[in-house]
Specification:
Blueprint lengths: L1 H15 L10 E8 L5 E8 L3 H13 L1 H11 L7 E6 L2 H15 L5
Parallel strand pairs: 2-3
Antiparallel strand pairs: 1-2
């Protein structure tokens, strides 16, 4: 399943670059969790920007799920093409926030 998830993540990451929907901003696919029967796949994405931009990007991705599923079907030879759902992944945002906090607390080494 790990190989399937990574393959789906790679194909979707490439496909997102070609989407023309203006709602979709700077989106990074951080991970994919596919069920063992290959019927569902949760795609975790990180979106750069405000919460409003994040919501618009998630709506754009939901609208483009059929196009993205078709791309998966063409590029990956799987028994089934999973139904895609997109969820926001806050880990990148948390990491950036933690880095800023550490930088504020660390003394300047000049």
């Amino acid at each position: 399943m790990r190989r399937v998830n990574e393959s789906v993540r790679q194909v979707l990451a490439e496909a997102l670059l070609e989407l023309k929907d203006p709602r979709i901003g700077l989106v990074t696919v951080t991970g994919v969790d596919t069920t063992s029967d290959l019927r569902q796949a949760t795609v975790f994405v990180s979106v750069f920007g405000s919460p409003r931009k994040r919501q618009a990007s998630l709506q754009g991705l939901a609208a483009a799920h059929g196009l993205l599923q078709g791309r998966l079907a063409r590029e990956l030879r799987m028994k089934r093409t999973p139904q895609l759902t997109f969820e926001y992944d806050p880990t990148v945002e948390r990491g950036v926030r933690m880095t800023h906090l550490i930088d504020e607390l660390a003394p300047n080494d000049e």
